[in-house]
Amino acid sequence: SLPQSGTFEESSNSYGSGIIMNAEGYILTNAHVLGSASNTFQVKLANGEEYMASFIAADTKTDLGIIRIDAQGLVPATRDSDSIVIGDDAYAIGNPGGPNLQSSLSVGHISGINREVIVNGNSEIPYIQTDAAINPGNSGGALINQYGQVIGINTVKISGSSYEGLGFAIPITQAQPYIDQLLVNGRILGRVRIGASFQVIDAARAVANNLPEGLYVYSIQSDSDLINAGVQTGDVITQCNGHKLTDVSVFKELIKDKKPGEQVELTVFRRRSGNTPEREFTVNVKVLEDVDTAFQMAAP
């Protein structure tokens, strides 16, 4: 049997899809579908019943959102993405273009797994890639397997004259810990940041600019402990806790298990300036809590 799904309209008259999570009326969708916690949401179930929904929580970094309706007799979707493999059949349920095409089903396959594509803000959960058609209005809807189990949350497709059949869904099993946090805390806890933006200096850029490989400090946020440590824009961070930094994702991986306020050791290169020679030095820097402010005001 197919999971119950529905379409909903938010106050700016855009449409998306959702997945019934439980009998209490919680509906899972994408954060980008919700737009803002201050919007109002009208939900229309596949059986035609309509409800006003209340905002529960959302997170832009995972592109997950939850709303709730007061309804009876809801049948929640069963969920399982642990066993998917490339080549499996995949079916996308949603509302392409809005309610006129409500509960459309498109058929395809699992084209790839663990795709690290940053879209709609999601930088934490790798995607399922599918060639099942995903169109505007499908976002937040279910990607299911041949048994009717939800394996993913339809999120985006890459479109253009050079692309065809590139749709992406958030795998439901990997999303579940984040969903649990949103339900309990109203936001995702434990994220950390350094408080700066970087440009990768690869081997070619290093030679061209007479710099070491690493992360060029492009800007520093005002609350970053880098400022207290004496790090400046234009410096290059080459190591974190003794590990070479070749990409921003490597840096994020090295600090992700730290708690806010804990320190990391950074090796920093500073080029020659005037009479000051180039030098390399180490600093200890506190990591900061990384709060998703987009929905912060509405979170419980």
What does this structure look like?
The longest helix is centred in the middle third of the chain and has 14 residues, at 172-185. The protein is mainly β and 300 residues long. The protein has a six-stranded antiparallel β-barrel. A six-stranded antiparallel beta barrel has the order 7-8-9-12-11-10. Strands 14, 15, 16, 17, 18 and 19 form a six-stranded antiparallel β-sheet that branches. The protein is built from five helices and 20 strands.
Question: Secondary-structure blueprint of this entry?
Answer:
Elements: E1 5-10, E2 15-20, E3 26-29, H1 31-34, E4 41-45, E5 50-59, E6 64-68, E7 89-94, E8 104-115, E9 127-130, E10 142-144, E11 150-157, E12 167-171, H2 172-185, E13 192-193, E14 196-201, H3 203-209, E15 214-220, H4 225-228, E16 236-240, E17 243-244, H5 248-255, E18 263-270, E19 279-286, E20 288-289
Short description:
This protein is mostly beta strands and 300 residues long. The chain has five helices and 20 strands.
Largest pleated sheet = 6 strands, antiparallel, barrel
What's the tally of helices? 5
What is the approximate shape? elongated
Helix/strand class: mainly beta
- One letter per element, helices H and strands E, the order comes to EEEHEEEEEEEEEHEEHEHEEHEEE
Q: Give the percentage of residues in beta strands.
A: 35-45%
**Average pLDDT metric:** 88
Helix content: 10-25%
Q: Please compute the radius of gyration using only Cα atoms.
A: 22 Å
